[in-house]
Model the fold of this input.
Amino acid sequence: MKYGQLKLDSQVCFPVYTASRLITQEYQPYLSEMKITYPQYLVLLVLWETDDIAVSDIARKLLLNTNTITPLLQRMEVQGMLTRKRSADDDRKVIVSLASKGKKMKKTAATIPHKLVKGLKSKNLTIKDLTELRDKLNLLIKVLSGKS
Done:
């Protein structure tokens, strides 16, 4: 019996995992300048898109559990990036809002995608390649999360 399916090069998970790790590494210099982590950046992206949002909605958008995201939000609140408050309509809901520091960070963050794409383009990847890759990964995420 052959075991070619067990070769590292035969796996889908390995290139996805490695690409994720390496792209996060590419973000790091820009995020370090802003004094934030990659998970904090993802939360800020959600908030810049939709401010005053429930913790459960942030978790859903990031495909995380609320118990995973809550400590992250607590640290971000201590750092002055956001505020958390109980919903007036439902005591069980916590609403997250950008603080002025979090709002100001948006201008700096807006330059990051362009810088990353510029760096990747210089490494023989086109905008079309990156767009197609993003779309394929989004499809994979939908399938794996049961949303297709």
Summary: Helices lie at 13-34, 38-49, 55-61, 66-78, 100-109, 112-121, 127-144. The chain has a mean pLDDT of 93.
